[in-house]
Amino acid sequence: MRGKSIILLLLCIFFSGFSVQAESKSSMTELDQLADEALKLTRFGRLEEAKNIMERFAELFSEKGVTERQFTMDELRIVTAAHHDALKALTSSDINTNERVKKVTAFRLASDAIISEYQPLWSQMERPIMNAFADVKNAALEGDENLYNSHLNEFLSTYSVIQPSIKIDIPIGKVQMLDSKIAYIDQYRSTFSEQKWMKELEGLETDLKNLFTDINKDDTDPSIWWVMFMTGGIIVSTLSYVSWRKYRGQKLQQQKRKDLND
Prior knowledge:
By secondary structure, the protein is an all-alpha fold. The chain has helices at residues 2-43, 47-67, 73-91, 97-115, 126-142, 145-169, 172-187, 194-215, 222-261.
């Protein structure tokens, strides 16, 4: 009986945990779908509908993030800021369509970053980011200052789309170092010269490549596998023990019947 009680206790713990996890996953899925729908509506120019979806997202996000504490303070702050910028873009008449879509895309990627465990959507932005930066570098090699400034502005605009997301997925030290290099090139662009900037640009290009390389690596926490192994081991050991007790009891009963018959 004691063995059966242990099994029942373990199963109750396992399935109660599974139920909570399933409910949490359902909420995360709804948040993900709302953010995705808001972006699609924005691309089609259905701004009022996109605004309503964004407001629904804010309600659910506040419920899960603040009330149930499913997100860290940094995640709450970053996604809230991205949501604010996206909502402002949807309601402003002073912003062009391209910039509006970029603001909502930045929000979409940030919301995905807090939900996705592996391969976040922003990692798919590698080609647009690197192509935009290649244009900056090529303009610098040509020594064309006007073209350089134009391409630099485009790169900064494209990079801003993933900036909230990388603050969620990448260690803050690396993000701050990358942002400081970008800010330096932007701030001192008026002193542009091919010889002076090429070393800075090559260093920044390497950092951008590493940004996407690092996020594509398998960063599964080994402790997760250890916990799973231990939990599975406990259940298997308990079942084995109960089976052995049952087998031993049956053998003893058979032996007693044999002794009585003799």
